[in-house]
């Protein structure tokens, strides 16, 4: 596998696991009154995540939480692009855009994004074409169903094999569209159309996806699979989140998507120190 991933003007070292820090973009950001305070708050959070060790900042303007409703393209662009521009002006960090809309991807690419993160794996109209016309890496995630209903009754013949078959097909579709395999990152999509048991089976067998010999991303931070197992509200899931991050990193995840960058960095440093002797 590649040792470095070129993400626009930045390089990502794939020899050890790296942190993708999640930047929450509030629904009513940047409308008139709140404009500067909201952007300032976002920039403060970004700066803190970079100081704490995040190599990628993932900006999402569409909620993909279970049951979430759709966001218009215009709204998504007006939420995401001003922050993207501001970050690229101030910091030398990779900015990832969490979107499933071709026009949002195109705007993001024009404005300095270093990575496209699509929970719908480029299956929406125009996405393959937009990605084929650039040379950025793209994360394709597995999801069964769609956010509104995906947690209703997820079913798999064989969880790992079904997800692998999905990846295989998407990789082929990407390659056929002109997106080279070397710029694809795979993510099995914790919490996206998976029961509690299925999510833990997925974590137990995460290392199976190394058979693709492609970079793996794991997003588990503060998710329901942690809250439901531990009976903890979303603000009390740090210990659970760190444990899942460690388990994923030990099984080969190269990008760990988290809210708590500083604490996850501590955990990864311990893993790296041990890895020296493994
Ligand atoms: C993920 C994501 C994930 C990738 C979200 C949340 C839901 N992108 N975007 N993987 N999750 N690649 O953070 O709870 O797991 S939004």
Description:
The protein contains nine helices and ten strands. It has an eight-stranded parallel β-sheet with strand order 8-7-6-5-4-3-10-9. Strands 1-2 form a two-stranded antiparallel sheet. Helix 1 packs across helix 2. It is globular, with a radius of gyration of 18 Å. The chain binds ligand 7PJ. The site of ligand 7PJ has 14 residues, from strand 7 and strand 9.
Write the layout of secondary structure elements.
Layout (H helix, E strand, L loop, with lengths): L3 E4 L2 E4 L4 E7 L10 H18 L3 E5 L12 H18 L3 E5 L3 H9 L4 E4 L8 H6 L5 E4 L17 H19 L6 E4 L8 H9 L12 E3 L4 H7 L7 H13 L4 E4 L2 H15 L3
Parallel strand pairs: 3-4, 3-10, 4-5, 5-6, 6-7, 7-8, 9-10
Antiparallel strand pairs: 1-2
The structure holds ligand 7PJ.
Short structural description:
The chain has 278 residues and is α/β, with parallel strands linked by helices. It has helices at 35-52, 73-90, 102-110, 127-132, 159-177, 196-204, 224-230, 238-250, 261-275; strands spanning 4-7, 10-13, 18-24, 56-60, 94-98, 115-118, 138-141, 184-187, 217-219, 255-258.
């Amino acid at each position: 596998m590649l040792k470095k991933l070129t993400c626009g003007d930045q390089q990502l070292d794939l020899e050890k696991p790296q942190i993708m820090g999640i930047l929450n973009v509030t629904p009513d950001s940047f409308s008139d009154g709140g404009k500067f305070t909201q952007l300032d708050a976002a920039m403060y959070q970004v700066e803190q995540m970079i100081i704490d060790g995040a190599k990628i900042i993932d900006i999402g303007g569409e909620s993909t939480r279970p049951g979430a409703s759709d966001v218009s393209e215009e709204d998504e662009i007006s939420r995401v692009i001003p922050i993207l521009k501001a970050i690229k002006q101030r910091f030398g960090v990779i900015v990832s855009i969490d979107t499933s809309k071709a026009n949002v991807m195109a705007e993001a690419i024009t404005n300095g994004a270093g990575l496209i993160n699509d929970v719908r794996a480029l299956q929406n109209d125009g996405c393959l074409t937009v990605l084929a016309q650039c040379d950025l890496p793209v994360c394709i995630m597995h999801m069964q169903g769609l956010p509104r209903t995906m947690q209703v009754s997820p079913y798999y013949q064989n969880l790992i094999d079904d997800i692998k078959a999905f990846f295989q097909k998407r990789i082929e579709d990407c390659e056929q569209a002109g997106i080279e395999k070397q710029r694809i990152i795979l993510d099995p999509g914790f919490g996206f159309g998976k029961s509690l048991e299925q999510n833990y089976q997925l974590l137990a067998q995460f290392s199976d996806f190394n058979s693709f010999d492609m970079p793996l991303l794991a997003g588990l931070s503060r998710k329901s699979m942690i809250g439901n197992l531990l009976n903890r509200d979303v603000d009390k899931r740090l210990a659970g989140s760190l444990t899942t991050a460690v388990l994923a990193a030990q099984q080969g995840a190269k990008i760990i998507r988290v809210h708590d960058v500083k604490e996850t960095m501590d955990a990864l440093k311990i893993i790296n120190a041990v890895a020296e002797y493994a």
